[in-house]
Amino acid sequence: MALVTALGRLAHVRLREYSRRTAAVSWGAFLTGRRNLSTGTQPLRSENKVTVHFINRDGEKITVKGSPGDSLLDIVINEDLDFDGFGACEGTLACSTCHLIFDEEVYKKLGPVTDEEMDMLDLAYGLTDTSRLGCQICLTKSLEGMVARVPESVADIRQSKDGSS
Amino acid sequence: MSGHKLLKLWSSGRSRWRLHEGISRCGKACYSSCIPKVCIVGSGPAGFYTAQHIIKARQDVDVDIYERLPVPFGLVRFGVAPDHPEVKNVINTFTQTAKHSRCSFYGNVNVGKDVSVDELQQAYHAVVLSYGAEGNRSMGVPGEDLAGVYSAKDFVGWYNGLPNCRELSPDLSCETAVILGQGNVALDVARILLSPIDSLKKTDITQPALEALAESQVCRVLIVGRRGPMQIACTIKELREMVNLPGTRPEMVATDFEGVAEALKDVPRPRKRLTELMLKTALEKPGEKEQERRNKASRVWGFRFFRSPIEVLADPSQNKIAGIRLAVNKLEGSGEGVQAVLTGEEEDVPCGLVVSSIGYKSLSIDPSVPFDSHKAIVPNIMGRVQQAAGLYCSGWLKTGPTGVIATTMNNSFDTARSLMEDMDSGMLDLSAAKPGSQSISVLLEKRGVKPVTFSDWEKIDNVEMTRGEASGKPREKLLNVEEMLQVART
User: Which of A76, B29, B45, B456 has its CA at 20 to 30 Å from residue B134's CA atom?
Assistant: First the structure.
């Protein structure tokens, strides 16, 4: 009897979660124009995952996990992270909207930058010496716990105004 | 769905954060009795990114996008070069926006002619003008109207299938083409003129343009600028494409680069890398392999600096162009304020094709909308049109015709934020309901205008893609409005 009740409750939760997840997926897809194709193919074993922390434009820290080989753009899309305008060209090195900033230590671990990436990175607002394009960084186990900051994409005149909205 | 994934979403707080954002944005207006209705004029990147931001920020706003042509996407469709298909990926996110339940697309509606901005303002709580820059700056020199002289806007429109450019039929039977201007559009034109025809065959370039380019005799393209190498407006990706363009070799004037290497020391990385690539291409002796490649190349391209057009010279017997007269400049001033100043010297360059790529220009489409004809923009502060409540602008109409899609995206988000602020603060009166598209549709019907919906566009889209398949192209664009409407009505 208890088992049935427990299962019933679980089923109820799963159903709600399913619709929330589907809504989030379609919302994410709505924002980025990409379908979340990898949901069904992610490995279930958690020891294969790499933890990544994103700091969004409001300064909030968002912790997610990705699989080795996923690019940081893949993770932003798969996890429906809500960064305005991120990944406009869908990872084809035709824009600079997946611009991310790293600390020195992590930056060194990211490997060499191709001319092609550098050419687009050069157009990014707020370019730093530890900037990279998220679509070109692929996860490896050695990047476990890395922090990536999403910089402002434009000089926000509002920042000097009194926040009264 | 793995159980692990479901649990994480529930406990992550991310969705709660987003919900919180939504509530803080719409404040007390969340509970207003009417649905706020916003109208956007123009369906290019500015229009769509503005729409996207508004729809995301408030759960109760309806957004209608009006577009003059039957097809959406503006310069993404008609401006981005055919050999840059990745740049057009933004169409996917625009499509998602258009298909959102609170967004509607109305193509084939000419705002300013079929319906006035005044009428839109009466029907909607807010109107955002995002209709871009359909005109171009003229050189203002004699001979500009001769056959063989084109604005880059028209030339690009021609190879990209803009309906009113399909009759351009540029004469490509000459050897030398001169492009005035050194921005990315100028480089696009040069690249399309000199690309091996096989690489263009698999793009969405129009069939007439492809055929004309296959017969083209143009084998030398000069890209001319008023100032020097340090002031060039193009970006490194486009320069690199020219340097690596198969079948071509670069040809520059070494003296144009005097003093440039020394000036690079304190320059920010983007400008430094761009200039270094230019210096290398212009001055460095190439390695053996590259030298061999250059020897075999049958087409030539090069920058020419310190030159401004003074007159387009006509071939007296044929009333078409024979060449262009250029004034020689020198630079005065330093840093951002460097100016080109006439020296009095002149130079004639024989050529059969001149493309003027000195800037697009916005036009005023409705006399009731304030317009700064000097800057060719709608005067605004952070997207709010000055002295016009309820009227906003985004994209090139707001800031002038420069910048890539990402620039326009940020610019549009900025306008959307201003609009949201005004809704939240009560600056925009949302207390009375507005009829939105209901009343506009009635007006349009009375005037015999039948809008094209987004699903109508999808019929056009499918026809284009199907036709493209036959020739291995991503699409074969329909080239005139009548044909587009015909397909839309099926």
Answer: B456
